[in-house]
Specification:
The complex is a heterotrimer of chains A (331), B (317) and C (300).
Chain A: H1 2-5, E1 17-28, E2 37-49, E3 54-58, H2 65-73, E4 80-85, E5 88-90, H3 96-100, E6 102-105, H4 119-129, H5 136-148, H6 165-178, E7 183-187, H7 195-212, E8 215-219, H8 223-229, E9 232-237, E10 240-246, H9 247-252, H10 257-265, H11 305-309, E11 315-317, E12 320-322
Parallel strand pairs in A: 3-8, 3-9, 6-7, 7-8
Antiparallel strand pairs in A: 1-2, 1-4, 4-5, 9-10, 10-12, 11-12
Helix pairs in contact in A: 4-5, 4-6, 5-6, 6-7
Chain B: H1 3-34, H2 40-45, H3 51-61, H4 67-79, H5 93-128, H6 133-146, H7 150-165, H8 176-211, H9 214-221, H10 226-248, H11 250-263, H12 269-278, H13 282-310, H14 312-316
Chain C: H1 3-47, H2 49-52, H3 84-120, H4 123-136, H5 140-151, H6 164-190, H7 194-201, H8 206-214, H9 220-242, H10 254-261, H11 270-298
Helix pairs in contact in C: 1-3, 1-11, 3-4, 3-6, 3-9, 4-6, 5-6, 6-9, 7-8, 9-10, 9-11, 10-11
The chains are: A alpha/beta (331), B mainly alpha (317), C mainly alpha (300).
The structure holds adenosine-5'-triphosphate and magnesium ion.
């Protein structure tokens, strides 16, 4: 299988995706009588995903998950910080070879495929532009890609409207795989699908990741799915990654109050809620107006005076990284 | 901020916005003398002028200098109210404009009034009875009406209405107020036949938006029904779109007036413009075009300011 | 609303949409058939004018001036004894040719400029936006009239008859802005769609993304508009010719024919009514085609 797909095999532990201090800032243009302002959608994110492993990114709507994904893919702005794959830095402007290394699966199955192109012509374009195959091998490879995602080769002649949402999402995965990337970003790739289809597509991503040795970044607001498929998890709040760590540890012993609140918000029958833990209340503050200090302090049930003024620095505890004054250095 | 203060800022803002627009519009009008082949000074003075006269005027208008200088001279003369003289009659262009203004104003006002009088109730009816035969008829007729040559409709009305009945004059502007009124009826009908369905259709869409808005839903829930709902909520809130729609169509309406003045032999700015254009009387052509262009700018400005008065929400945004 | 909430609604919703769609597509097809036949008939008349017209449209016969319809002259003769039917037939050729050029040339220029401006943004985009504002508060047709007067009426040019070149130039000089606005708006919308983002993420070159992924999905409205615009251009040109500023005598052109026959309207009404009807019939045909296309394109 690995030989036929033409992808190099990478062992676990080899550097996959490395993100250091990534900032994404959007300019919100001035209106009549309004000054231009800024949205810091991603605020110094550090991530690393080894080849062949997967990272889940979770957080409320508007916390900057898509901005992070788009910056990593080279289709969104990078204000500062670096994105590297396999030890090589990728800037926003990428040549063809660099662009190939990170590919994305999009959320909306209806808008993620060009309605005027057949699946075959779309895949052939990618293969030939990148010079990955020539002549008759192009068609063979296109059929092979569809097979890889569980679709018949006969689908090559059809346009997107002929497929269901789940099938389109498979086609979207085939498109991403056509370029033989090292990193695959899935931004809410299954949220638009019904539950049974979700499971199948998640399964597919999971298998492909293992077989092809991809680094998978799986963005979702469904904590259950993330727990099932990801090796590690990053929790985002208002552009900041507040906690990060191996999946089981993070789910079993969440350290950041926001992570706890998120987990509590998921109805579970097997766990009695510990006393003192509060459900998350209120909307997150506007990213146009991020609170001083710890961004979570206005909603935090255990905030102290220091949280209002001083931004916490990330602290590593047993392989788990957390940014909260509750966990001072050295504890 | 107090309401009067923000209204004041809005007016200032809007007036300031008109400055670059005015510069652009006057530049386009200035170009009219530039596109003519050969020496424009010769064309302006006519064939009888001596070559000294031609070179003197060339110098005076800046034709021996670059385009920016020429445009600057044009603006300078413009603020002094000097639009030059007619090549044909030697009269000052400003006095040509003054003597022919009245019939054109009559035509414009009559056409705009008739168009609104037809379009507004039509749009109300179509919006209130969506998908009715009337609604479909409006949609279809708005497309077909666009393709009716106004001048031809005018001629047909003359031949088949004015001539046999004698109710309306066949040509000319008539005498006195009643005479003028009778003369502008057929031109106004010709024009609104094409324009009213188009305006009504866009207005219908605007009104449906109002009908489907939250506050109409709230009013319905509060028990406001039927005619009173319509009068208080829909009519009031569709005034603004009506005003802006008419403003958008003003350029089209003015061209219609020009054509109909020729069709009905009404001696206004329009027919004077056509005579000048055909006779290559460049400065008269330029002057009258400027009047029409300024009219469009002013109508748009007034419409915007009017909207602030009608609709407080405009001020807020 | 999250997509998960909508999911169960999609099926029934889709069905009702399909019902409405098929009704719209049925109506769209009917409009296309009726409008298409009208337009096709007039195009055939234009192409085979030589075979259809019984007489030379320019040949004067002062002994048979203002003849009544019938006999050798289907629609009679005009004040110079020219066969009116033949002139109408040849006018179809002139009006269609100029109308098509006056819509298609600005469409090509406007599409190029609008697509570039919308896709690349920057100074070009700002400029196009400003120009659009300008055109919207300017009496464009009055300006055309003045420009045509200043340009004068030159000779024939290549395959264009007398007076046709200035008309096309003047229409193109302003008309492209309307198309640029149309395309720009669509390009701005389409370029944010996921499949365009995917094409960019795949490292495809920007011209390729624009030409192969953005433009094909941004031209629907333009196609509809250009069909309607051919009719509007013919109408405007006929009006300008009626005023003496478009196509000069003795070329057969519908608007000019109305002007030259106007003095005889009271007695020979058909001299004026038939050219006007021709403009309207062609316009309505084109309007039906455009509207039908709109219905069909909307459902895909
Ligand atoms: N192009 C842009 N210009 C300005 N602001 C933007 C832009 N894109 C996103 N934002 C803002 O940045 C913030 C983060 O947006 P982003 O789409 O990354 O969030 P998200 O976590 O993906 O949300 P969701 O779960 O709704 O997809 C939001 O407040 C959003 O309004
Ligand atoms: Mg998102």
């Amino acid at each position: 299988m690995l030989q036929t797909t033409g992808l190099g095999v990478k062992g676990a532990g080899v550097t996959g995706l490395e993100v250091r201090g990534l900032h994404v800032r959007y300019r919100v243009p001035a209106g009549l009588g309004r000054k231009p302002s800024y949205v810091d959608a991603v605020n110094g994110a550090d991530l690393s995903v080894a080849a062949g492993s997967s990272l889940g990114v979770v957080g409320e709507s508007g916390c900057g998950k898509s901005s992070l994904a788009r910056a990593i893919c080279g289709i969104g702005p990078i204000t500062s910080g670096s994105v590297s794959v396999g030890g090589v830095e990728l800037t926003r402007r990428r040549d063809r070879a660099a662009a190939r290394r990170v590919q994305m699966v999009f959320q909306d199955p209806t808008s993620s495929l060009n309605p005027r192109r057949t699946i075959g012509s779309m895949l052939r374009e990618l293969l030939t532009v990148h010079g990955l195959r020539t002549g008759a091998a192009v068609d063979r490879r296109a059929a092979e890609l569809l097979e890889l995602v569980g679709l018949p080769a006969s689908a090559l002649g059809d346009r997107p409207h002929a497929f269901s949402g789940g099938q389109r999402q498979r086609i979207g995965i085939a498109r991403a795989l056509a370029l033989e990337p090292e990193v695959l970003m899935a931004d809410e790739a299954v949220s638009a699908l019904d539950v049974s289809t979700q499971a199948v597509v998640v399964d597919l991503l999971h298998t492909l990741r293992a077989e092809l040795g991809l680094s998978l970044v799986f963005i979702s607001h469904d904590l259950g799915v993330v727990r099932a498929v990801c090796d590690s998890v990053a929790v985002m709040y208002l552009g900041t990654i507040v906690e990060q760590g191996p999946t089981e540890m993070l789910f079993e012993s969440p350290r950041h109050p926001y992570t706890r609140a998120l987990l509590d918000a998921v109805p579970r029958i097997d766990v009695v809620r510990p006393p003192g833990s509060a459900r998350l209340s209120g909307e997150p503050p506007s990213p146009l107006d991020v609170p001083t200090g710890c961004p979570f302090h206005p909603r935090c049930p255990v905030a102290v005076a220091r949280c209002r003024t001083e931004q916490p620095v990330p602290v590593e505890i047993d392989g788990q990284t957390v940014s909260c004054h509750l966990w001072p250095h050295g504890s | 901020m107090p309401a009067t203060g923000s209204r004041y800022t809005f007016v200032w803002h809007r007036l300031l916005q008109s400055v670059p627009l005015l510069l652009a519009v006057t530049f386009l009008v200035f170009l009219i003398t530039k596109v003519t082949p050969g020496n424009p000074a010769r064309t302006i003075l006519g064939p009888k002028a001596t070559s000294e006269q031609v070179s003197r005027l060339s110098h005076q208008l800046g034709y021996d200098r670059g385009v920016p200088t020429q445009y600057w001279r044009f603006l300078e003369r413009l603020v002094h109210g000097d639009l030059g003289d007619s090549a044909r009659t030697g009269n000052a262009v400003t006095s040509v404009i003054a003597t022919h203004l009245a019939p054109t104003v009559w035509m414009v006002v009559a056409s705009a009034l008739l168009t609104s009088l037809v379009a507004v109730p039509l749009a109300w009816a179509a919006a209130a009875h969506r998908d009715s035969w009337l609604d479909h008829l409006l949609r279809t007729s708005s497309i077909f009406a666009l393709y009716l040559p106004t001048f031809w409709v005018g001629l047909v009305l003359v031949r088949f209405v004015a001539l046999p009945t004698g109710w309306f004059p066949v040509s000319g502007f008539g005498d006195g107020v009643t005479g003028h009124l009778r003369s502008v009826v057929l031109p106004a009908i010709s024009l609104s036949l094409g324009l009213a369905p188009v305006v009504a259709r866009s207005l219908r869409t605007a009104m449906i938006d109002v009908l489907e808005s939250d506050y109409v839903a709230a009013a319905r829930a509060a028990g406001v029904r039927g005619w009173s709902l319509f009068r208080w909520y829909v009519v009031r809130n569709s005034l603004s779109p009506a005003v802006s729609l008419l403003a958008v169509q003003i350029g089209f309406l003015l061209f219609g007036v020009v054509v109909l003045e020729v069709t009905f032999d009404i001696n206004g700015l329009g027919s004077e413009l056509v005579t000048a254009a055909v006779g290559k009387d460049l400065l008269v052509t330029q002057g009258i075009t400027l009047v029409f262009a300024l009219a469009v700018v002013v109508v748009n400005l007034v419409a915007d300011l009017l909207l602030v008065v009608i609709d407080p929400r405009v001020r807020a945004s | 609303m999250t997509a998960a909430l909508v999911d169960p609604l999609i099926d029934p919703l889709d069905n009702s949409v399909n019902e409405r769609r098929s009704a719209a597509s049925g109506r769209g097809r009917a409009k296309l058939v009726v409008g298409g036949s009208l337009v096709a008939a007039l195009v055939l008349v234009a192409v085979f004018a030589g075979a259809i017209a019984p007489h030379d449209p320019l040949k004067q016969d002062l002994l048979h001036r203002l003849a009544d319809p019938g006999g050798a002259h289907l629609l009679g003769t005009d004040a110079l004894g020219r066969d009116v039917f033949s002139r109408l037939v040849y006018a179809t050729r002139v009006d269609l040719r100029v109308g098509v050029l006056c819509a298609v040339v600005p469409m090509l220029v406007g599409t190029l400029v609008g697509a570039t401006a919308g896709f690349y943004g920057g100074v070009a985009d700002t400029l196009v936006t400003r120009l659009i504002d300008l055109v919207q508060s300017f009496p464009v047709l009055v300006f055309f009239l003045a420009l045509l007067g200043a340009l004068g009426i030159p000779q024939a040019f290549l395959f264009l008859g007398p007076g046709e070149l200035p008309v096309v130039i003047v229409f193109a000089a302003v008309g492209w802005i309307v198309y640029a606005r149309l395309i720009r708006g669509e390009v701005l919308r389409v370029r944010e769609l996921d499949y365009v983002q995917a094409a960019r993420a795949a490292g495809l070159s920007r011209p390729r993304v624009l030409l192969r992924h953005v433009l094909p999905n941004a031209v629907n409205q333009t196609i509809v508009y250009v069909v309607l615009d051919v009719g509007l251009a013919i109408l405007a040109m006929a009006t300008l010719s009626f005023l003496g500023l478009g196509i000069p005598a003795p070329v057969p052109e519908w608007g000019a024919m109305i002007a030259e026959n106007r003095p005889y309207f009271a007695d020979q009404w058909w001299l004026v009514v038939t050219p006007g009807l021709s403009v309207s019939v062609l316009g309505v045909g084109l309007a039906l085609v455009g509207d039908g296309l709109d219905d069909l394109l909307k459902q895909s």
